[in-house]
Write a structure and sequence with these properties.
There is one protein chain. Helix content is 17%, strand content 20%. By secondary structure, it is an alpha+beta fold. It contains two helices and eight strands, in the order H-E-E-E-H-E-E-E-E-E. It has one domain: Microbial ribonucleases (Nuclear Transport Factor 2, Chain: A, Roll), CATH 3.10.450. The strands form two sheets. The protein has a six-stranded mixed sheet with strand order 3-8-7-6-5-4, covered by helices on one side. Strands 1-2 form a two-stranded antiparallel ribbon. The N terminus is likely disordered.
Length: 138
Amino acid sequence: MALLVTVGAAALSNPALLARSPWSGGDDAPAAVSGQPAGGRSTEPVALQSLPTEARSTHRLILSGGPFPYDKDGTVFGNRERLLPRQDRGYYREYTVPTPGSRDRGARRIVCGGAQRTQPDACFYTADHYASFVRYAW
């Protein structure tokens, strides 16, 4: 029981660990992580400032158009997990958020969508390699 309480408290204090909540827009809309606890229906974004420093740096690179440190940065994100709102292929692009101490790209990413890469319509952060997302505002 104590472990469950500890894990639950950790999830509530870290937006990237929050459970999925339904995305607004109808019954057939995909689930997405919001800035609310499990069961919440709000899709209010969290502040960019609440994300790790490395995510804020990656976001600045996205808005400036790079250069990006990894070849995969800026490639199409297919949304196969269907956790983000449905869009045509090519709408979403993924970017690496470096993980201190990691020998590879790690699990952290930013996925942004929109017609113009340097002016995205929406951006999402994942700390667990696409298992969950949190939408953020800048």
